[in-house]
Amino acid sequence: MKNAWLLAAAVLLYPSFCSAGNKYELGLIVGEPTGISAKQNLGGNKAVDAAAAWSFSGEKSLSLHSDYLWFRNDVFKVEKGRLPLYYGLGARVKLKDKSLVGARFPVGLQYFFKDERFTIFAEIAPILDLLPDTEFRLNAAIGFRVLL
Prior knowledge:
This protein is mostly beta strands. The protein has one helix at residues 2-13; strands at 24-31, 34-43, 46-55, 61-72, 85-95, 100-104, 107-112, 118-131, 135-147. Strands 1, 2, 3, 4, 5, 6, 7, 8 and 9 form a 9-stranded antiparallel β-sheet that branches. A hairpin with a 2-residue loop joins strand 2 and strand 3 (46-55). The N and C termini lie far apart (34 Å). The mean pLDDT is 87.
């Protein structure tokens, strides 16, 4: 359990070690689990996101994840704002009686409103839990963030 807490701290703190001076987004992610979502835009169509979310159904748990994301702005054209497709690779820790550690492979869409101060997103994230057992799972969520 001690190792799970250390990994969880690393997952949440990772975005703060990225280059300073870039735009941050903070908001909520809704689904199962539901919680706080943050993203740091790294420039060059890359970003790092993280979330701390709680599950209230079944066995209560705290889920922490962080992903390195790549954005494709040329997939969907919209009249106002932007609608890039994104995909990434990350890690997830789910803290409960029998904690889980795994890899995430998120794919989603993020709509940037015209002034780009407010965004909404939807994603699915296949997860391959590696510890304590190997198991495939699927998460899905929608959310919003405000540019800070």
